[in-house]
Write a structure and sequence with these properties.
This protein has about 325 residues and is an alpha/beta fold. It is about 25% helix and about 25% strand. It has 8 helices and 12 strands.
C-alpha cells in the first residue's frame, strides 16, 4: 500500500513514502551509482530517542549530499508469532508521516517477513544495505540488533560487515528515560502526560468513525465513536482532555480535512449503561453539527481527568459531563 502525502509515489517535495513495501521496492529512490545514508528500526512511537537517531541520519545525509532513507520494520503479526506483538503506539502510516517530517527522502515501511527469508546479519548487510540501499553510512541506536528472527547481529557485527561491504556505521547514544516499552506502561495506567514527555508530543490513536449507541447525542454531547485497529495502544479506561482531528486517508471521505477541535474523550465501557463493549469516544467541544461517519480521525490525549464511574441517574451523569467539558476547555485552551 502506498501512502504518499500527495498522489503517486512521491510527496510535494519528491520524497518517496511506502507502506507494506516489498523487498524489491527498498531504495527505489536511490538511482544508478547514487548512495544513501540509512537508518533502520521498528520506530514504534517515533519517540524522542528514535528522533535523535533519525535526525542524525538526515544530518549526515545533508552533510554528504546523499539521500536519507529510513527502513521501518513492522512487528510480527499475532497470527505468525503469538504473543510477540506489543500494543502499537503508532500505525505504519503515521510512522511514515512522522519520519518524512524529519526530512527523510525515502521511507519504506516493511511488513514482517518481507525481507530476504531467514536473512542473517551477513546476508542482510550484503543484500539489503549494500546492494539494494547502496548505503554509504548506516546510523543506528547503540542497542540496535538485526538479522533473522533471532536478531543475532549487533552494532559491532554491523561495523565488521560495514568494513566488508563498504559502509560506515555511526551510533547514537540511548536515552535512558525513553523507550516504547516505558511509554506503553504509562498508557496502561492512564498517565498520558508522562507518555507525552517521552514521545515529545501527545499520544494519539487513529481509526474510522462508526455508528455506536448514540447515547452521547441523546444526552446533548454527540461523540465520534472511533474504531481503532487491532493492537492499538489505548490508554486506561477513563475520561481525558485532548483533541479530535480529521486525517486525510486514501479511499475514505475527506470531510473537515485537517480540522482539529478540543475534545472530551471517554475510554471504556460506559459503566452507567450495562453491556457496552470498550470504546474510544470523543466529543468535539461545542460542535453538534459534525457528520463524521466513515471519516478517518485521530484522537490525541492531553491529560486524564478521572476514572470511569457508574452514576445513579442520567442527570448526575450529565452534570459530570458538563464538568468534564469545562475541564477540557481549560486544559486545551
Amino acid at each position: 500500500m502506498i501512502v504518499p502525502s500527495v498522489g503517486g509515489n512521491a510527496d510535494a517535495h519528491g520524497r518517496l513514502v511506502r507502506v507494506d513495501a516489498g523487498t524489491s521496492e527498498w531504495g527505489r529512490g536511490v538511482q544508478g551509482s547514487e548512495r544513501s545514508v540509512v537508518t533502520i528500526g521498528v520506530f514504534d512511537g517515533v519517540h524522542r530517542g528514535h528522533r535523535r537517531v533519525a535526525e542524525r541520519a538526515v544530518a549526515v545525509a545533508r552533510e554528504r549530499g546523499l539521500r536519507a532513507v529510513a527502513v521501518v520494520f513492522e512487528r510480527p503479526d499475532e497470527a505468525v508469532r503469538p504473543g510477540a506483538r506489543p500494543q502499537v503506539l503508532t500505525g505504519p502510516r503515521r510512522r511514515a508521516e512522522l519520519l518524512t517530517g524529519l526530512g527523510f527522502d525515502e521511507v519504506d515501511v516493511v511488513p514482517f517477513g518481507a525481507g530476504p527469508p531467514g536473512a542473517g546479519p551477513g546476508e542482510f548487510a550484503q543484500s539489503v544495505l549494500a546492494e539494494r540501499l547502496r548505503a554509504a553510512v548506516v546510523v543506528v541506536g547503540e542497542r540496535f540488533t538485526f538479522g533473522g528472527q533471532d536478531a543475532s547481529g549487533d552494532v559491532e557485527i554491523l561495523r565488521t560487515l560495514g568494513d566488508k561491504y563498504d559502509f560506515e556505521v555511526e551510533t547514537v547514544p540511548h536515552l535512558d528515560d525513553v523507550s516504547a516499552t516505558s511509554i506503553r506502561e504509562r498508557l496502561v495506567t492512564g498517565d498520558v502526560e508522562a507518555a507525552a514527555r517521552q514521545l515529545g508530543r501527545p499520544h494519539r490513536v487513529e481509526g474510522v468513525v462508526v455508528r455506536g449507541y448514540q447515547r452521547g447525542r441523546q444526552l446533548g454531547f454527540p461523540t465520534a465513536n472511533v474504531e481503532t485497529p487491532q493492537h492499538t495502544a489505548i490508554p486506561a479506561d477513563g475520561v481525558y482532555a485532548g483533541w479530535l482531528e480529521c486525517v486525510p486517508v486514501a479511499n475514505l471521505p475527506a470531510l473537515y480535512e485537517g480540522e482539529r477541535w478540543p475534545a472530551a474523550i471517554s475510554v471504556g465501557t460506559n459503566p452507567t449503561f450495562e453491556g457496552v463493549p470498550r470504546t474510544v469516544e470523543a466529543y468535539a467541544l461545542d460542535r453538534d453539527d459534525l457528520e463524521l461517519y466513515g471519516v478517518h480521525v485521530a484522537v490525541e490525549f492531553a491529560a486524564r481527568l478521572r476514572g470511569n464511574t457508574r452514576f445513579d441517574s442520567i442527570e448526575a451523569l450529565i452534570d459530570q459531563i458538563h464538568a468534564d467539558v469545562e475541564a477540557t476547555r481549560r486544559l486545551t485552551s
